Queue: 4 jobs
Job 1
Amino acid sequence: MLRTNQSFLDRTITFYAQQQRQEDIVVRKYTKGQNLYDQGIASTKVMVISEGIVKCYFTEANDKEYIVEFLSTGEIVGEIESIRHIPSLCSIQAMTDVTAYAFSKAYFRELLERDITWSNMLLDVMAQRIVHTSSRASYQQLYSLEHSLHRLLEIQSQQDIAIKKEDMAAYLGISVRSLNRELKKFLE
């Protein structure tokens, strides 16, 4: 549920310390509730989260949100859009105060071309996301809502994070009303 990648963060910190031009990678801070990216809007940066938790979500045509995943330390965002030269596929919002390393797109692409370790690490991240998304989709098909909610509540407790009901419902792909019914069952 909460994805992290310490080795990717470590590599980013190394790049930050070694950069020749101070504008290639800058540190940005976001407050809880602030968007790092907005769905459909072009971004100028690729970011690696240093501290904090963000939610990655789609807003559908009917204004319903669907949370794809929660990301934290060491996770990269905006890389697909940079590689494909497209606007943001989804919105990314800070659930806590967030600090991120923001790469200029030009520097990010330069690193992809000249640093095989960085490129391989990024390939690994993308492969992990595909596996995670596939596993989550099959999990949601195979297990009951009650089971998925129980797992989400366990992970929330283990990670010591508070997730709003709206976000829990969006992550589970259900309405808040359905979530309330399921939560009521837990209390009975």
Job 2
Amino acid sequence: MTAETLLVRCAVCGRAFAPPLQVDRATLEALVVSNRYECPHCGSVAVYVKADHFHRLEVGRERGV
């Protein structure tokens, strides 16, 4: 089983976090993104554009496989 998580990297602390917006790569490419998020790690609030977003591929095993 594979899944992608959309993440942004905080400009202040440098840690990545998942924003409320979760879309696949094709949808992200089609969107105009300029969202304000609060970093759950340091509390910094910033505006993030499409270039600040990236996908992380997570590969795991399904139960019973």
Job 3
Amino acid sequence: MARTGTSTSRIVGIDPGLNITGYAVVDFAGRELAIVEAGAIRTNPKAPLVERIEQIHRDLCELLAEFKPEAAAVEKLYSHYKHPRTAILMAHARGVVMLACRQAAMTVMDLAATQVKKSLTGNGHASKLQIQRAIQSTCRLKHLPEPPDVADALAIALCAGKHMTGAIPAG
């Protein structure tokens, strides 16, 4: 899909994670959507924390500079109270993701996982597999998007597109 005029919006959805950060760059034009790029930034779990968050920031900055999305949607942090350390580690990844987006002068939307899931499947507590299948159907993909972090990033981008552009992708 060509980005012509003001009728096309480019949004990046980001599922922040310390091991895997999923991303999806999607163009919206009316009710049509096109996946421009989707993938994952993977860090070495054995590397020091500072190197891992630096890599996430650097790789995401390169992605944003290449694809120049107008807006970003980032999943809100959620952690069960029994695992506070997980929330703290995830907050590092989410923080550098948000910093990279602001440095690129983008509008940044925070979306709760339940909001994204409900927007896509009608169920705010849908499983990872349900999200993957919904993305496969909505985006007319031959295969389930892998890893699930990429499906989550696509779902985040689609939910943001629905809110920001009024687009309701045909599935």
Job 4
Amino acid sequence: MTRFTLIAAASAFCVLGAQAGEDVSFEDVDTNADGFVTETEFVSWKTASGEVSTSDALTQFIAIDADASGMISPSEMEAAMAAKDDEAMDDQDDMTAPDDPLN
């Protein structure tokens, strides 16, 4: 279970943004404006460009849906976006780290 959770959390880092570097708002994905993103809304949005498969979109949806309610709340989306931002910052820090192995 823990292994699945870690894998799911890791995949949540790259789920947002229709294209590299593009931010998305909750309202962009919540097409019926009911305050939640359903599996159908999320999968439709993620697969619209043809770059993400339905299977991958479902995996990403599950990773973001922290309470397994079958819907993504605004707070779950915010947490996924924050995790994505943290991962990007970590990647940037790794690229700028000195090459000196003693540091």
